Every structure is written in C-alpha cells, then in structure tokens.
Amino acid sequence: MFERRKERDEELDLARENALRDLERERERLEQERAVLEAKREKLERLQTELEARQEGLEEVEDRLEDLADELDDHEEELEDAESVKELLNIVSQGIPGVMRGIQEAVYSPEQSKQMAQSIAEFYKTLVDGGIPDHQAQSLTYSHMSNLQATIQRTAHVRLPHIPHPPEPPTAEPRPNPDPQPDA
C-alpha cells in the first residue's frame, strides 16, 4: 500500500510535471501568438493612419479640382462674353463704314456743297443789301462759315476741310457826311 501510494504519488508528480510543461509550452505559444497579433495591430494602426492621411490628401486634391472647375467655368463665361463682344464689334465695324460714307456724302456731295455755297452767298448778299459795308459783310460771312463748320464738326464728328480766312479788305476811308450840319 505504501508502495502503491508512492507509485501513485510519483505518477501524480509526473503528470503534474507534464501538465506544467504543457502549460508552459501553451503559454509560450500564446505569448508568440499575442506578439504576432500585437505586430498586426500596430501594422493596422499604421495603415489606418496612412489611409487617413491619404484621404486628407485626396480631399485637398478634390477641393483644388473643384476650384479649377469653377475657374474653368469663369473662363468659359469670359470667353462667351468675349465672343459676344467680338460679334458685336464685327457688326459695328461692318456698319460704321456705311454710316461714315453716308455722312461724308451728305456733307461733301455736290448737291450739298452747291446748296451750302448758295446759302452762304445769300447770307452775304443779304448783309450787303441791308447796308453793311462790303468788308464787314465779308468778315461776317467768314465768321458764319467758320461757325457752321465748327457746328458740323461737333455734331457729326466729320472732319471738314479747313476753310482759309479770306484776306482782310483794305479799310475804307470814312465817307463824308452828306448832310453837313451848321455850327451853332
């Protein structure tokens, strides 16, 4: 009985030692797995940080692309405005020469020139017939022509040829008074 007990105690000790060894091996294996899992967790955290940084970079790129798209829209609107201005200028540039020709023909046409000359001659004749001395009538007629030319230039924006000032007539000597009045 004592022997059996001893045998049993030895078997128990052996089983205990085996169990402790098995537990130690299992603990080492679990520690290795935990170290591997810890390394994987750190790698996942690092990858997550990198992913967040890349996501922020992509958001910045997206914002820049939106800004560039807005800028492109603005440039397209400017181009459309420029095209409409260009079309307007083409229309105006095609129309202005015709208008200018019409104005020039109205001012420089033989009929208009003849009519203006007749008007100026009539003005002069009316002054002389009204008793204005010849040299004053010439001066007034010249002033009238100058004023007419200046008015046409201001209102029609047409450049008329320069009309030279006629030479001043010699001053007439005062005429003797036909009715001498007796001295009192």
Describe this structure in words.
- The chain is built from 3 helices and no strands.
- The chain has a domain of about 50 residues.
- It starts with a helix and ends in a 28-residue tail after the last helix.
- The model has no long low-confidence stretch (mean pLDDT about 80).
- It is rod-shaped, with a radius of gyration of 58 Å.
- The longest helix is centred in the first third of the chain and has 107 residues.
- α2 runs antiparallel to α3.
- The chain has about 180 residues and is mostly helical.
Average of pLDDT: 81
> Which range best describes the helical content: under 10%, 10-25%, 25-40%, 40-55%, 55-70% or over 70%?
over 70%
Task: Tell me the fraction of residues in β-strands, as a range.
Answer: under 5%
- Shape call: rod-shaped
Number of helices: 3
Extended strand count: 0
* H/E series: HHH
**Straight-line N-to-C gap:** 197 Å
**Class per helix and strand makeup:** mainly alpha
Task: Report the biggest beta sheet as strand number plus sense, adding barrel if it closes.
Answer: none
What is the radius of gyration? 58 Å
| Low-pLDDT sequence parts | none
